[in-house]
Specification:
By secondary structure, the chain is mainly alpha-helical. It is built from 5 helices and 2 strands; from the N terminus they run αβαβααα. A two-stranded parallel sheet has the order 1-2.
């Protein structure tokens, strides 16, 4: 089982540690928005979800009732989300 310092160097220490911890815990979904970190985690067999996916999953459970304002807040706070991805999330949320 890799330790954080054994995860490839193109990742930050926090991302590497999160992936290593997820591997250690076993059946744990990791929330990552960084594309490189997501690819690396998936390559190691770690299931991942981004912040937009978390919002969609929460909406399916009834809270929040709208994804758009929260997604807009995340983008305003610095979340980089491609326009096509943003549109797809809103479509999946039926907004």
């Amino acid at each position: 089982m890799p330790m954080w310092h054994e995860i490839p160097l193109e990742l930050g220490a926090g991302e590497a540690e999160a992936i290593a911890l997820s591997l250690e815990l076993g059946d744990a979904r990791l929330i990552l928005d960084d594309r490189v970190a997501r690819r690396r985690a998936r390559a190691l067999g770690v299931p991942v979800m981004g912040s937009a996916g978390v919002l969609l999953a929460a909406k399916e459970r009834g809270v929040p009732t709208a994804v758009r304002p929260l997604l807009d807040e995340l983008r305003a706070a610095g979340l980089h989300l491609a326009k096509a991805t943003h549109a797809a999330v809103l479509e999946l949320a039926a907004e």
